């Protein structure tokens, strides 16, 4: 699940509804795939299944999904991560993860389609260093005094720090480094010290590089509590060619004229990654149900909860749906997204390409269901707040497109039917459903918590430890197979199967008598910082 911070690191009764990321979409040549029903030698059972009512077919689908079926895929992803160091987009581990999903879909009878796209890859390969060598030797602490800028270049520089238009007598206003003219007379080979404010960090860093700076220190602006301390920043892409770090206002303001060492070790470049989609061959192409999960991890590790859990659960449901629901009324499309951890890039690319090349296919999407982290070790059962009742549209949530409330209701009804409580989580668009709700597509999904802290009331409802993170290994190397609660995975996978199965036969509760979705329901997702998980925004200016 993306934080956008520097890596420090098929139909049925309503009783059968539950959590799967399902999206209705029409076929887009080159980006989607049809899936033939899985081959069978048992013709009599197949005929019997075809004659069964939708409710019975959905019930059979839900009964068929199980923990071991999901765990098999989790083990495979763990082995891939162990072999390659991570499963992050742009790495061999992601390529292997993509190949695994494609292979499993083919075995289930689908014809998966792989969609490639380029993205800005960034990885920190060694801890950054910021230290003053003279006059008062000081080693500054990463995360407390300074941070590396995302997409910083690599290097190890010891040189004099030279302030650039710092204007410390005007704290409220800063244009430091925003104009090339600010660097007139700058001594090439020095470390440029610029102050945050007015323009993007990328502009300041590129101007400094062009002026011959050997490294760049970007101090906070100093105008208020939220713009004084250490902060996370991004250049937005691989434009940095020299080491670049951010500091608090206090640290930065004392470095002008001192001799300082700045050292960074990064990989920052454009790389290729992939989305994987597969869909049922049968069903209305004008009313597609889509379910998705991001397949990539962060570069720090295997990402087995985030988001191997959602990816494996979705893959298991796809396998079972091919066997249990032979003739869905609506086409069902499954998706595994790349580069979510870099800012929802896979889902954005997919939706953007549909909008540009096949807008009819985009309009035909009835709904989208998202599954990002469904097995947190200290889990809670969260359902996206599709009616904005717990998190009104505003600073903490986006306005949910019409129909999203019914998806939330269906999820909650499924869990109630099993005697399980749920709690809402903000409908903010800070996972792969964001690009879909921006097009007015109703959405919903499930989530079991990230680095946020479980409350006492949640511990009473779900068990686990109050006062501890839902996932203490979130975005860390320890997010491995031992970091997954299979009880949470099992019930969430059944919820996914129930909703996907139900909507495969009817989306009437979501879009009435219409097909597809109403573009007029478009909304604006919040920035991709996953604030509902307590993430810190990575600033661009």
Automatic annotation (TrEMBL):
Chain intervals for the UniProt region annotation (Disordered): 512-541
Keyword Oxidoreductase: no
Residues of the PA domain: 174-255
Statement: the UniProt record of this protein carries the keyword Signal: yes
Signal sequence, renumbered to the chain: 1-35
Record keywords, A-Z: Signal
InterPro entries: M28_fam, PA_dom_sf, PA_domain, Peptidase_M28
Domain Peptidase M28 stretches: 275-499
PANTHER family tied to this protein: METALLOPEPTIDASE M28 FAMILY MEMBER, PEPTIDASE M28 DOMAIN-CONTAINING PROTEIN
Protein's name according to its UniProt entry: M20/M25/M40 family metallo-hydrolase
Organism the protein comes from: Nocardioides abyssi
């Amino acid at each position: 699940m993306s934080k956008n911070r520097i890596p420090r690191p098929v139909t049925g009764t309503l009783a059968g509804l539950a959590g799967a990321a399902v999206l209705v979409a029409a076929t887009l040549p080159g980006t989607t795939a049809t899936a033939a029903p899985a081959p069978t030698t048992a013709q009599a059972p197949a005929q019997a299944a075809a004659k069964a009512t939708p409710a019975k077919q959905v019930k059979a689908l839900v009964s068929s999904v199980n923990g071991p079926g999901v765990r098999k895929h989790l083990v495979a992803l763990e082995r891939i991560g162990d072999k390659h160091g991570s499963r992050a987009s742009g790495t061999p581990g992601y390529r292997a993860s993509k190949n695994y999903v494609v292979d499993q879909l083919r075995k289930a009878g689908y014809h998966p389609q792989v969609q490639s796209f380029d993205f800005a890859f960034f990885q920190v390969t060694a801890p950054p260093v910021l230290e003053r060598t003279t006059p008062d030797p000081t080693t500054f602490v990463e995360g407390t005094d300074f941070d590396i800028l995302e997409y910083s270049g690599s290097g190890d520089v010891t040189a004099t720090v030279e302030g650039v238009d710092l204007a410390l007598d005007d704290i409220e206003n800063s244009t430091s480094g925003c104009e090339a003219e600010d660097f007139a007379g700058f001594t090439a080979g020095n470390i440029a010290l610029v102050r945050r404010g007015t323009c993007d960090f990328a502009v300041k860093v590129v101007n400094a590089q062009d002026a011959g700076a050997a490294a760049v220190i970007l101090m906070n602006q100093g105008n208020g509590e939220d713009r004084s301390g250490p902060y996370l920043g991004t250049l937005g892409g691989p434009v940095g060619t020299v080491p670049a770090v951010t500091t608090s206002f206090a640290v930065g303001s004392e470095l002008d004229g001192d001799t300082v060492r700045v050292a960074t070790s990064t990989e920052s470049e454009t790389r290729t990654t992939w989305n994987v989609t597969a869909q049922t061959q049968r069903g209305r192409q004008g009313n597609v149900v889509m379910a998705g999960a991001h397949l990539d991890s962060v570069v720090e590790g295997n990402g087995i909860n985030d988001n191997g859990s959602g990816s494996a659960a979705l893959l298991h449901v796809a396998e079972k749906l091919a066997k249990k629901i032979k003739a869905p009324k609506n086409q069902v499309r499954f998706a595994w997204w790349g580069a979510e951890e870099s800012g929802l890039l896979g889902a954005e690319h997919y939706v953007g390409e549909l909008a540009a090349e096949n807008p009819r296919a985009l309009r035909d999407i009835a709904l989208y269901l998202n599954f990002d982290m469904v097995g947190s070790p200290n889990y809670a059962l969260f359902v996206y707040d599709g009616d904005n009742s717990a998190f009104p549209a505003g600073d903490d949530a986006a306005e949910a497109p019409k129909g999203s409330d019914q998806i939330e209701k269906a999820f909650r009804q499924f869990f109630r039917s099993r005697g399980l409580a749920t709690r809402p989580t903000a409908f903010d668009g800070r996972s792969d459903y964001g690009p879909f709700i921006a097009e007015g597509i109703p959405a919903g999904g499930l989530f079991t918590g990230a680095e946020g802290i479980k409350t006492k009331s949640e511990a009473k409802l779900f068990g686990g430890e109050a006062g501890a993170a839902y996932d203490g290994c979130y975005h860390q190397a320890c997010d491995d197979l031992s970091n997954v609660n299979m009880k949470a995975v099992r019930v969430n996978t059944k919820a996914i199967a129930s909703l996907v199965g139900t909507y495969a036969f009817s989306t009437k509760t979501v879009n009435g008598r219409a097909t597809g979705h109403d573009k007029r329901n478009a909304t604006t997702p919040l920035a991709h910082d996953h604030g509902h998980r307590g993430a810190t925004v990575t600033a661009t200016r």
